[in-house]
UniProtKB/TrEMBL annotation:
Its main location: other. Keywords: Metal-binding, Signal, Transport. It comes from Nocardia iowensis. It comes from the Bacteria. Residues 1-24 form the signal peptide. This is Zinc ABC transporter substrate-binding protein. It is found in: Cell envelope. PROSITE patterns: PROKAR_LIPOPROTEIN.
Length: 294
């Protein structure tokens, strides 16, 4: 995520499932006899907790829906947790550098989601929107936890299998959209939902110059801004995919133009709204895109 405004996402009340899935943990397995897992964000923490079940303890460093993993600096306590955990799960690809730095050069079990992606040619770091990568991460977490707690290895594998079955439901929504509305053009305020759009067969028409400027946190050239606005005013796209966690004057203006043009807006986020798990979150994202493009 780029520089975030302090916008807390509204969500439903925290449910029992979410509460149980992200249990607090000690700094090592010595406290309870169970493996300790520390994840960089609650996205990967929720996935790890789903695989861990009651047989390992999981904690996430970033749980605030408005926090920016790009700019996070660990406290002494957080550094200790990352250092002492039996397993560290993080995004990689430069997205959560604080976690990458914490485990660099250390002989410990880690799961780097970016390095786990099946398609190494795609360099978009928002791999938590890539269902294939998430499935690969689930398997790696199960394998790592099975090595740490051999008596529970079968349980970890079983939970990973169940989780991947649930992921298939998200893939089905995107696949149906790709079959029924192939190459539907959309515009993104930034390439956050890149992998969702790929799975849905959607064509991202966002001008490269505009997207590059957003990624580099610089002001796009006037020509790039004009070309981007024209896509909306000329209804050359069917929807605006809008990251509500990264808003500035320009993105708010694009949203206003889209609304004035009668185009649907698909709101996306890069940390989980409060009270939902990963499957619920990504299912909602896929359904919102499908509804906007029908």
């Amino acid at each position: 995520m780029k520089t975030s405004l302090a916008i807390r996402l509204a969500g439903v009340a925290v449910g029992a499932v979410a509460t149980l899935s992200l249990t607090a943990c000690g700094s090592s397995s010595g406290d309870s006899g169970k493996p300790s897992v520390v994840a960089s964000t609650d996205v990967w923490g929720n996935i790890a907790a789903t695989i861990a079940g009651p047989d390992a303890e999981v904690e996430s460093i970033i749980t605030d829906p408005s926090a920016d993993p790009h700019s996070h600096e660990t406290s002494a306590v957080e550094s200790a947790k990352l250092r002492d955990a039996d397993l560290v799960v993080y995004n990689g690809g430069g997205y959560d550098e604080f976690a990458e730095k914490a485990v660099a050069g250390r002989d410990k079990r880690t799961v780097d989601a970016f390095e786990s992606r099946p398609n190494k040619d795609d360099e978009n770091e928002h791999v938590f929107y890539d269902i294939n990568t998430v499935a690969a991460v689930a398997d790696r977490i199960a394998t790592s936890l099975g090595e740490l707690a051999p008596d529970s290895a079968a349980a970890f594998t079983e939970r990973a299998t169940t989780f991947k079955t649930q992921l298939a439901g998200i893939t089905a929504i995107a696949g149906k959209l790709a079959a029924e509305h192939p190459k539907t053009p959309v515009l993104q305020t930034e390439p956050l939902a890149h992998y969702l759009l790929l799975a849905a067969g959607v064509e991202d028409r966002t001008p490269h110059e505009f997207q590059e400027a957003v990624e580099q946190e610089t002001d796009p050239a006037p020509a790039a801004v004009a070309a981007t606005r024209e896509l909306l005013t000329g209804k050359q796209v069917r929807a605006l995919v809008y990251n509500v966690q990264t808003q500035d004057k320009m993105t708010k203006e694009l949203r206003s133009v889209a609304q004035s043009s009668g185009l649907p807006i698909v709101e996306v986020t890069e940390t989980m709204p409060i009270g939902v798990d990963y499957i619920q979150w990504q299912t909602k994202n896929a359904e919102a895109l499908a509804a906007a493009l029908r």
